[in-house]
Amino acid sequence: MAHDDNAHSILIDSDLQRGMVTDATLFAVTRPLAVIAYTALVAALIINIIVLTVVGDSVGERASTLAWTPLAIAALIVASMMFTRASVRRAITTAMPTGTRVRLQLGDENIRVISKRGVSTMPYSTFKTMRVGRHAALLLLRGGSVVTAIPRALLSDADITRMRSKI
Fold first, then answer.
1. For residues 34 and 131, what is the distance between their CA atoms, to the nearest angstrom?
2. How far is Cα 96 from Cα 87, in angstroms, rounded to an integer?
3. Which of 61, 90, 161, 167 is the 20 to 30 Å CA partner of 127?
4. What's the first-to-final CA gap in the chain, in angstroms?
């Protein structure tokens, strides 16, 4: 495992948490499956608006019923993004509560995250990809949709390059 000269720590504050939540939310809503889903919803919204415009004057009652469809689709898009952000916030604040110190050790084969919640030792081979945001480095686990968030401030550019070469 890593030596003390390769260990980093940071005190988690509300600004860091908020930034990590933003980075992780952007990651979640820009993943390929999410992009396809949001694109389909936006396309359905546009098609409904076009249909509503064409049918609008010809059938009054039907048009008023159809008028709710674009609103429902728009509400679904907004609710989905809000739910995603709430889920991400809950996960990050549970793993790294405000006022706790998080320590990171980068070894030759593993990443070790130490916090008040315990110690997680994760082999680099556990991860499929890494995305680095302004406040968080996000590691996507192989074979799933689970993401591990690490405060970006714990990683130098050299650490990020090293991690990417091992993932």
1. 16
2. 14
3. 90
4. 17
User: Cα(11)–Cα(105) distance, rounded to whole angstroms?
Assistant: 15
Express each pLDDT in 12-46 by its tens digit: 999 999 999 999 999 988 887 888 888 888 888 88
**Numbers of helices and strands, H then E, in the chain:** 5, 7
Residue with token string 């429902």:
72
Please give the structure tokens belonging to residue 142: 């192989």
Tens digits of per-residue pLDDT, 102-132?
Answer: 999 999 999 999 888 888 899 999 999 899 9
Beta bridge partners of 119: 114
pTM strictly above 0.85: no
- Secondary structure (DSSP) of 78-104: HHHHHHHHHHHHHHHHHHS-TT-EEEE
CA gap 153, 58 in Å, rounded: 60
